[in-house]
Amino acid sequence: MTQKSKAVIIALPLLILAGVAVFLFCYNQEGFTGSRVKNPDSYLLDIEKMNGTDLHTLELREGDILQIQFETWKGELYMEIKAPDGTSLYRGNGKETTDFSVNIQESGVYTIIVEARHAKGTIHIQLEEKRT
Question: What is the pLDDT of residue 52?
């Protein structure tokens, strides 16, 4: 076996390993493709492809109702709605329950956290009604 053949045999697995590493790095990059609307009374995500985390806050009053439509079609998509004190009002993946309401028990700033991994889906959160 020639020196050149030995070098190719040694270099080939290293090149393949480097190629796989670059692919995995690029594949897992954070990013968002789709439509994202963040308003004081709504948070609307129509996701074609998403990797990473997105946040939105809503200032809500006691008695408000959030109407939520949440579906995951591909990948992993999780959403959590946190009350002003940090407790979780909702945490789910958009696969079991896709259309529901959340009643707001106390006034304050609520945080919506969306985590995605190679996800496609939709999250529509709309302030349905303000009670006085």
Answer: 94
On whether the CB atoms of residues 75 and 119 are closer than 8 A, the answer is: yes
Select from 85, 78, 74, 124 the least CA-distant residue to 102: 124
Rg of the chain taking only CA atoms, in angstroms: 22
Separation CA 103–CA 129 (nearest Å): 10
φ, ψ of residue 63 in degrees (nearest 5): 95, -15
Q: Which of 30, 36, 49 is nearest to 118 (CA)?
A: 49
33 closest CA partner among 120, 130, 124: 120
pTM of the model: 0.76
Instruction: Specify the pLDDT at position 12.
Output: 65
DSSP string, the chain: --HHHHHHHHHHHHHHHHHHHHHHHHHT--EEEEEEEEETTEEEEEEEEEEEEEEEEEEE-TT-EEEEEEEEEEEEEEEEEE-TTS-EEEEE-SSS--EEEEE--S-EEEEEEEEEEEEEEEEEEEEEE---
Q: What is the pLDDT of residues 22-75, one digit of tens each?
A: 655 555 678 999 999 999 999 999 999 999 999 999 999 999 999 999 999 999
